[in-house]
Structures are given as structure tokens and as C-alpha cells.
Design brief:
By secondary structure, this protein is of the alpha+beta class. The chain has three domains: 226 residues, no CATH class; 144 residues, no CATH class; 142 residues, no CATH class. Helices cover 48% and strands 11% of the residues. It is built from 22 helices and 18 strands. The strands form five sheets. It has a five-stranded antiparallel sheet, with no helix packed on it. It has a five-stranded antiparallel sheet with strand order 8-2-14-17-18. It has a four-stranded antiparallel sheet with strand order 5-9-10-7, with no helix packed on it. The longest helix has 37 residues. It is elongated.
């Protein structure tokens, strides 16, 4: 193509590729709780394609196109994610600082948050820049390199990434939409670009394009409709019309028990829920919630069927085995209460167990009416034992928090920043909530979202166990303590007619935080005023206490006059969170990005020659006849001559090509003449070729190619080595 010529624009194929990338980008919306980020992603897709289309229409070079794409991507990120940091629409130093901080947060949170999550600036930046870049790469591959399937790889990568990390919601519609867009792209690119590039007899190009469109559209429609029908079959539905799989693999969705606490406390306070025969008082635990997405604490536990009365897999820390007998009256829940940590499964039919949360569920709609025995190891830790526990490695998912108000992060550091051991940090957080500045109040609305958390900690300071437990767990995670929220019931009141029987009522519904402390495992703390962990006074400093049935905001035991001994710490609190240099410095992000780019370039530089060598070997293996091999040798020599700058006249014979290319190969011109003669024989007198003629032709082609490429400069050799167009040869 001469500098003044204009490349074909392929409008229909371009529209197909844009649609494919728009659908792939839209599937990323399943990763986030807000749909607003989808519009940013779609705008980035359109922006990436717009700059690539402009570069094609202006016949820009590859280097100029790359610079334009980088500039456009930077502008898109700035305008979409950090518009408030710009000056006259241009990025500033504040933009750079905001971007590096956001990327550091995204890198830290990526391994611990679960979708759908809040679309933080870091996640938005990564998504916008990725889809814009992928759109430009796809356009370049489709219309500069001329590949069809490979051009769909960026969109397919985005779709698979979103599908793997997102929930099952909208999975089938997303898959069908992507399949339809992919079929449309393949048909349009082959009908428009492929038809133009491949040779046709006479004026058959238009008819050939229409044939490709009709055939491809028909086959694509059949494929998409078939997939849609397949998704409607009984064994693909959720819940399935036919239960062909075991129940332990069947997903179940239910309301979090944390949501139900306020209704139990306020509306049904004195109703009996269950009774338990136990020689020891304890918190009767339903389950634990280990995911906080900025709105609510929840869990996505994996329960498996177990036999009643058997030992549980992966029991908790050691303790004193205590047998409890539960009689469920009106729990209205799928969970089965038990003291932590159970070491045997309840003696009830059709139950399942989740080791991560140490909880049981029933296969029935509710556990009401069940009576069962369960054995638990009930530990009674002491302050001395917990104080000797070292920081807990791992448990990254129990440290995840979304982006919150900066004041919440500073508060966690102020409370725990100068405290030594993990136990002392947990105790300091408990002391903060029970210092008298917070009040127990059932009149506040339910919830513990990011806004509710900030309001509770800094404004109202009024709430019930849901707010206290959820806020404690968030601050604990910000302080580096693996934490979660447990939900269940306090011990209940003794039955006056039956020894060792406790009657648990709705008013005993409760939530409390658990902190993982080394070998002690998950340890309950009690930030809620008027409540105290049974048997926990030795390490919490708070005697057991629970709600009074007549006055829900009061407690059945008096508040303690002393608490556990305070650790010796410096009196000056920390006013800002302490961040390690590797997390706060933007240069570490720059270095990581540079290393990633260098690694990608290195992998690319190594992949091109490797793929070229593999394809060359495959071509020679597939050339069966001597004539095919002779023509292949001539083609390889011609490719090398073309890369060295030789332009043969249109319609030139092999002898004419050899004559015009002689100056490029110098002393190897006789070999080129001999290769041309062999090519003529292969075309016009094929039976005359022998195997030794083919060996000579291949050797001549290798020598001619080496001689032609020897005259290239180092930059020209580098461009040739990295040029993906060699893959089309």
C-alpha cells in the first residue's frame, strides 16, 4: 500500500467487532454491585474502537497507532474515573497520584473480595483501561493482521474472566448474548474482509460474500437457538425440574439470619424458639458470616451431606466435649443451632455441614420440629493463653473489606495502632464499644452498610447487636485481625421444671464477632453493651449477661465494674493508619507495571519466532508431493525477498523475479536462478522432479533468504522479528 492510498474500512465487519466487544464489556457488570460502571466500560470500548478506526482510515503506522491508543486510553481513564482531578480536561499530578493509589487498593483487594463487589476507583480504572486496550488490539488484529478467530480472543478473555469471577446470576443470558455476538463477528468478518482478500473468479466476489453471509447466519442462528434450548432442559435449570444430581451439590439460597434479628427482638420477643438440655451455658450458634461487600455481612458456604452422629471433618480447636440436646419449636430457619465448635454431627436426618463456618443445615424447608443431640468442644480460654498467640498467617478472605470512609480506617488504627498482640488489639476494640460512648437501642433501622457503619461510629452511636458485631468485625479486619460475624442466640433462661434445660426465646437472638487467634481458633468477643459471652469473663473481662424478656434493652446481670487488665501501651494514640512503604508508595506500582509490561513484551518477542517456526514445520509436513515442496521453497524465498524490500512486478515469471532480485542476494544469485528454474519445472513439468531436486531447492531457498535478510539494519531486524504479519505467511 502506498502512503497516499486509503485502506478499506470494512464497516460491517467493524460493526460486528464493536458489538462483540460491547457484549463482552457488558458482562463485566456482573462483577459489581452498581450498574453505573457498565456505562463507563461501554464508553471505553467505543473509545478504543474509535481510535483504531481513525488510525486505519488515516493509514497511520503501527508506532503512531500505538501512541494514539495510549493517549486515548489515558484520556478515557481520566475523564471517566478521575474527572475531578483534571485541569481543562487534561490529566494532572493529582490524576497520577489518584490512579496509583487506586491501583494499589485494587491490587490489594483483588485476591480477597468476592463478586459482586463495590466498583472502587481502582477496579473501574483497570476495567476501563483493559477494555479500551483490548478493543484497539482486536481491531488491529482483525484489519491490520487479517485474523478472524484471534481478533475475538480479547473479547473472549474478558467474557471468561467475568464468568469465572461473577455469580451465577444472568449467566445463561450473558452466554447466549456473547455466543450470538461471536457468531455475528465471524460471519461478517469472513463475508466482508475475507471475501475481499481471497481470490475470486471474474466478478464472483459479491456473490461469494452473500453466500458467506447466508450460510454463516443460518448456521449461527441454529447454534444460538440450540444453545438456548439446551439451557431450558430440565437438568440445566436452577432449581432443576428433574433432580438428577445429588442434593449435596444443589445450591440453596436463603435470607441471612442477621437480617432476621431485629424482627425477633422487637416483634416476637418472648416466643420460645427452642430448648436445649446442656450442663454448660453457651452461645447457641447458627452460622457465621465472612463476606462484607460494603452493604451487608453474608456468606456463600459450601455444605455437604453428612451422616447424623458422626465426627465432623476438620473440627475446631480442642476443648471440653459437651453433649447438647436441642428441641426446635419455632426457629423458622434451615440452620441447626449448636455450641461452637461442634465435633459431631446432629443426630437428625438429611443434614449438611460446612467446615468453614462450623454450621449445619437441614434439607427440609425449616428445622422446626427437629430434636437432635450434638457434641461440641467448648473451650474456656484465658487472657494469658490468648495473649501468647502469634499473628495468624493466611486467612486472606477473612481480612477483606471494601473501600470505606477514610475515617473508619483511621479509627481502627487509633484504637489498635499501639497495641501489641492480636489478642490485645481484639480486646481494645471491645473496650472501645463498651466504654460508655455507645448505647444499645432497638429503635435504629436494621442494617450495617458503609453509610450505616459511618453513621453508627461517628454520629448516632446507637444500635443493637447487628451494628455492634458488624462494626467490630470491620474495624478488626482493618486492624489486621481475621474476623467474622456469628449469628445465633444467647444461652437463654433455665427451665424451672427440668434440670440443665435452657429455654431460648426470640429475645435471645444475637450476633457477635469472632476473631481468629492462632491455635485458639475462632474466639468470641462481645462489643454489645449488656451482653457477655458465657464462660468468657476470663479473657473478655465481662461476666455473662443477656437480654431481659420484660425490657429488651436491659440485661439480666449487672455490667462489670472491672474488665481484663489493660495492656501497657504508650498514651499517645495513632491519628493516621500506618501503611507500609510498599503499599503507600506509587513507585512500587510503577515498577510492577513496568515489570509486567517487560514480561509481556518478552513473552511476545519469544512467541512470534516460535509460532513462525512451528507453522513452517507444519507447512513442510503437509507438503506431500515434490511439486508442493518445490513451490513452498520458492514461496519462502519470495517472502524473505519481500521482507528485505524487493517488489516484484505484477505478473512476473520466476525467472524475471530472480533477475530483479539478484542485487539483493549478491553472490547467491545463481542459487536464486536455479530455484526459479525448479519452480518452473514444478508448475509445467511436475513428473520430472526428483527428491534430490527438492533437497537442493530447500537449501537454495534457505541460503537466498539468509542473503536477502543479511542487508537489514538492526532496527529492521527487530521489527521483522516482532511483526505478527509473519504469522499470516
Amino acid at each position: 500500500m502506498t502512503p497516499t492510498s486509503r485502506a478499506p474500512l470494512y464497516p460491517y465487519a467493524t460493526a460486528g467487532l464493536v458489538a462483540l466487544n460491547l457484549v463482552a464489556g457488558a458482562t463485566m457488570g456482573r462483577l459489581f454491585t452498581s450498574a453505573d460502571v457498565v456505562w463507563e466500560i461501554l464508553a471505553a470500548v467505543l473509545g478504543g474502537h474509535a481510535i483504531a478506526f481513525l488510525a486505519r482510515s488515516r493509514a497511520w503506522s503501527g508506532a503512531l497507532t500505538a501512541l494514539a491508543a495510549l493517549a486515548a486510553g489515558t484520556a478515557l481513564v481520566t475523564w471517566l474515573v478521575f474527572p475531578e482531578t483534571t485541569a481543562f480536561g487534561l490529566p494532572t499530578s493529582e490524576t497520577w497520584a489518584s490512579a496509583t493509589t487506586a491501583l494499589a487498593d485494587a491490587r490489594r483487594n483483588f485476591g480477597v473480595v468476592l463478586a459482586p463487589t463495590i466498583a472502587t476507583p481502582g477496579f473501574r480504572l483497570a476495567c476501563v483501561f483493559a477494555v479500551a486496550t483490548f478493543a484497539a488490539i482486536a481491531d488491529w488484529g482483525a484489519f491490520r493482521v487479517g485474523v478472524t478467530v484471534e481478533a475475538a480472543v480479547p473479547a473472549f478473555t474478558i467474557f471468561v474472566f467475568s464468568s469465572v469471577l461473577s455469580t451465577a446470576e444472568f449467566r445463561a443470558p450473558a452466554a447466549l448474548a456473547f455466543a450470538a455476538a461471536l457468531v455475528g463477528w465471524l460471519v461478517l468478518h469472513n463475508a466482508e474482509f475475507g471475501a475481499r482478500e481471497r481470490p475470486w473468479f471474474g466478478d464472483m466476489r459479491a456473490a461469494g460474500s452473500r453466500a458467506i453471509l447466508r450460510g454463516g447466519a443460518g448456521l449461527g442462528a441454529v447454534a444460538v437457538v440450540g444453545a438456548a434450548i439446551g439451557l431450558m432442559l430440565p437438568f440445566t435449570q436452577d432449581p432443576p425440574a428433574v433432580a438428577w444430581r445429588d442434593r449435596d451439590n444443589k445450591p440453596r439460597t436463603t435470607v441471612s439470619p442477621l437480617v432476621d434479628i431485629r424482627a425477633r427482638l422487637v416483634q416476637r420477643g418472648n416466643s420460645e424458639v427452642f430448648s436445649v438440655d446442656s450442663p454448660v451455658r453457651a452461645y447457641w450458634r447458627l452460622t457465621s458470616l465472612d463476606r462484607f461487600d460494603g452493604r451487608i455481612w453474608s456468606s456463600r458456604s459450601s455444605y455437604r451431606d453428612v451422616r447424623g452422629g458422626r465426627d465432623v471433618p476438620d473440627p475446631g480447636p480442642p476443648g471440653s466435649p459437651v453433649v447438647q440436646r436441642f428441641t426446635i419449636k419455632s426457629l423458622a430457619s434451615i440452620w441447626l443451632p449448636a455450641a461452637y465448635a461442634p465435633i459431631s454431627t446432629p443426630t437428625a436426618p438429611d443434614i449438611a455441614y460446612d467446615p468453614a463456618s462450623s454450621s449445619f443445615i437441614t434439607a427440609e424447608e425449616t428445622s422446626d420440629g427437629l430434636a437432635y443431640d450434638v457434641t461440641s468442644n467448648i473451650a474456656v480460654p484465658t487472657a494469658q493463653m490468648l495473649g501468647g498467640q502469634s499473628p495468624t498467617p493466611g486467612l486472606r478472605s477473612q481480612l477483606a473489606v471494601p473501600q470505606l470512609d477514610a475515617r473508619v480506617t483511621r479509627l481502627a488504627a487509633e484504637i489498635t495502632g499501639r497495641v501489641g498482640t492480636p489478642y490485645e488489639k481484639a480486646l481494645a476494640l471491645q473496650r472501645f464499644f463498651r466504654s460508655g460512648r455507645f448505647q444499645y437501642d432497638l429503635r435504629v433501622p436494621a442494617g450495617h452498610s458503609g453509610d450505616a457503619l459511618t453513621n453508627f461510629l461517628f454520629n448516632s452511636r446507637r444500635g443493637y447487636c447487628e451494628q455492634f458485631a458488624g462494626s467490630y468485625a470491620v474495624l478488626a479486619r482493618l486492624a489486621g485481625l481475621p474476623a467474622r460475624v456469628a449469628v445465633g442466640f444467647t444461652a437463654g433462661e433455665p427451665d424451672p421444671d427440668v434440670a440443665n434445660r435452657l429455654v431460648v426465646r426470640e429475645i435471645n437472638a444475637h450476633a457477635w464477632p469472632e476473631v481468629y487467634l492462632g491455635q485458639a481458633g475462632w474466639v468470641a468477643f462481645e462489643p454489645t453493651p449488656g451482653r457477655g459471652v458465657p464462660g468468657g469473663e476470663g479473657y473478655t473481662g465481662i461476666p455473662e449477661s443477656q437480654a431481659n424478656a420484660e425490657q429488651p434493652s436491659s440485661a439480666t446481670t449487672a455490667a462489670p465494674t472491672t474488665i481484663a487488665p489493660e495492656p501497657t501501651v504508650a498514651p499517645t494514640p495513632v491519628t493516621t493508619p500506618v501503611a507500609s512503604p510498599d503499599e503507600s508508595s506509587p513507585w512500587r506500582t510503577v515498577i510492577l507495571v513496568a515489570v509486567a509490561v517487560a514480561a509481556a513484551v518478552g513473552a511476545y518477542a519469544g512467541a512470534i519466532p516460535a509460532v513462525v517456526a512451528i507453522r513452517r514445520r507444519n507447512r513442510w509436513s503437509s507438503a506431500r508431493t515434490p511439486e508442493d515442496r518445490a513451490l513452498l521453497a520458492w514461496r519462502e524465498a519470495g517472502t524473505a525477498l519481500s521482507e528485505a524490500g524487493h517488489r516484484a512486478p505484477r505478473g512476473a515469471t520466476p525467472a524475471q523475479v530472480a533477475h530483479s532480485a539478484a542485487p539483493l542476494v549478491g553472490s547467491e544469485a545463481p542459487r536464486l536462478d536455479r530455484l526459479a528454474s525448479t519452480t518452473v519445472v514444478a508448475v509445467y513439468a511436475p513428473p520430472r522432479l526428483r527428491s534430490e531436486d527438492i533437497d537442493t531447492a530447500r537449501a537454495d531457498a534457505d541460503v537466498v533468504a539468509a542473503a536477502a535478510l543479511a542487508g537489514l539494519s538492526r532496527p529492521q531486524r527487530l521489527r521483522r522479528a516482532l511483526d505478527p504479519r509473519r504469522l499470516r505467511t
